[in-house]
Structures
1.
Amino acid sequence: MRLAFVGGTGPEGLGLAMRFAAAGHAVAIGSRSPERGAEAAEKVRQRVPGAQADGGQNADIVADADVVFLTFPYEGQEPTLRAIADRLAGKIVCDVVAPLQFVKGKGAVAVDVPGHSAAEEAAALLPGARVVSAFQNLAAEKLMELEHPLEADVIVCGDDAEAKQVVIGLANAIPGVRGIDGGALFNSRYVEMLTALLINLNRRHKTQTTIRIVGI
Ligand SMILES: NC(=O)c1ccc[n+]([C@@H]2O[C@H](COP(=O)([O-])OP(=O)(O)OC[C@H]3O[C@@H](n4cnc5c(N)ncnc54)[C@H](OP(=O)(O)O)[C@@H]3O)[C@@H](O)[C@H]2O)c1
């Protein structure tokens, strides 16, 4: 598959792109600047020998993608999606955004967003796209450690059953990761909030936590 990462120059997009490239997928790294997109693609090719990776401006790299990942900060979501909404019509769009703030004395705090979750807001902004959400609980630092298999469950939420299965399949393609059907896109609000807890656990226990769901 060809996977595109809008805002893919940051650690989360790059980490996911590297893992998917290592699993044999072609990846395209998007940026607001074509140069930064191309530089980030070069990083993927360096870390993953034989990777099919290119980069460019966000609006351009989504054109021929099978799945488009949203890997920019929450603040950028509305303007970025408004600018490329027409290009995402009909596509599977996987929102990785977790709306967070860092508050002195508290650490990471999940932000109450008007549409209840970044993913539900993305779906409202992209009525023609097949929006799912996933990977919000998988830390970039862990993704970047390509020499170590991951140990994580990825909860995939969405209202389009087929799109959700495609993203579950992508999660399963990363060694050590299990994609779990998380039900409707509605549930994304809980998955997104969990990211704040994981960051605070990481700080307290000086580690990088992931999640495992038992009983499934
Ligand atoms: N980092 C993690 O461990 C982690 C874990 C789970 C989920 N997430 C989620 O994944 C997303 C990306 O995380 P990250 O740490 O990679 O973020 P980041 O480094 O802050 O941002 C990623 C990229 O987004 C672009 N960007 C920044 N501000 C933007 C704006 N206002 N509008 C449009 N594009 C903008 C930048 O690319 P250009 O300047 O090249 O355009 C930047 O390199 C976040 O929503 C985060 O909640 C992160």
Note: Strands lie at 2-6, 26-31, 53-57, 67-70, 92-95, 100-103, 107-110, 130-133, 152-158, 177-181.
2.
Amino acid sequence: MSADKQKGEVIRVLVVEDNPDDLALFREYLLSVESVRVSRWVIRSAETLQSALDSLKEQDVDAVILDLTLPDSSGLNTYLKISEQVPACPIIVLSGMEDESLAIDLVKRGAQDYLPKSNLNPDLIVRAILHAIERQSLLQKLAEVNTALMHERNEVTQLQMQLIQAEKLESLGRLAAGVAHEVRNPLAMLQMGVDFYTRRPGPKDENEETMMEMMHDAIARANRIIVEMIDVSKSTQLEIKTDDIVTCVREVLNLTRHNVIKESINVIEKFPESLPKLQFDRSKIEQVLVNLISNAIDASPREATLEISASMGSVGRVIPDKGLRKLKQPRRGDEVVIIEVRDYGQGIPEDKIGKIFDPFFTTKPTGVGTGLGLSVSKTIVELHNGMLTIENAPPCGVRSRIVLPVASG
Ligand SMILES: Nc1ncnc2c1ncn2[C@@H]1O[C@H](COP(=O)(O)OP(=O)(O)OP(=O)(O)O)[C@@H](O)[C@H]1O
Ligand SMILES: [Mg+2]
């Protein structure tokens, strides 16, 4: 064997041909050609469509040479069955005088080439096989590049949507700042008035007292909405420190204990012995947790179970890698800490799930929820380069997860 020949590849070909003479000739032709690109031919054969399909199931080949007329199949059907089974394998159609136009048609449908039986010669066969393999591999690469491009395009679209959202939030922020400025002073005046009448000496009737209390609550609520609107606008700065996330979760559980007891909720805590310290703004993450836990309690029936856990994981294994993410969010393989709030309440109707992060989206009665909780929470978690995910979980209820990156170094 020459040195050049040793550099080539082993090429495995399945020849599907029911005529033993044609098959023998084909084999002889192939073996007679020396090519620098081929170190050895492995030629397998099949005489029927079924035996060809069985053979392809058992072992891969680099190319199929296909006679369209076989004892158990003919014409287009022969080609379709084989290409269905091995869509990525190049198929070269052997055609007689009678089915040449069909062979040409098959090349248009995806066959790599056709060889007229009446005019075969060794060089032609080898060249057809090698070119077919080459073209198929290029097609494969093209398909991969195409998929990657589609992926990139989706990511760009996603980023554009995020930009639009960011711009919306920024305008909302500017609006909020204006509203805060304009409305806070009149609200303060109203509050002073309420305080004045509440503290006024002398007897008050019951209606008067109830009215004062209602006005006081309404002013407090209006103030809260303004503060939250400014929060949504993400103008707030984070105060990042290295801190223990489990202590933070435990503190929030203490804060929400009153509601838990009132609703007789059974809280199950699952915290590991140790977790790496994280970089976060404690009061902001507490704000997120208060909202997730309050949402869970609001959605749960009395005496329901509420599970709160913290754990280590990695994107792609514990947290699905959805492929689309903001630039600084955790990527496949990154180590993260996951804080999970799992309730067994009514869950979120499918037609509402896409809206829950929208500012002011709420299903709660007026006066109970402002609908800013999740929108603010998402902004806060993303400012920490993390992710906030909310999903319905079988058999019922919702699983909310705060995913925070484990800071490197
Ligand atoms: N655990 C949950 N189970 C069922 N529905 C939920 C859950 N968490 C959120 N939701 C739905 O998402 C909506 C938006 O939640 P979000 O926290 O943003 O606002 P809110 O709780 O209604 O008001 P706010 O938090 O501002 O007081 C809720 O009104 C509710 O319909
Ligand atoms: Mg809420």
Note: The domain at 157-232 is CATH 1.10.287 (Helix Hairpins).
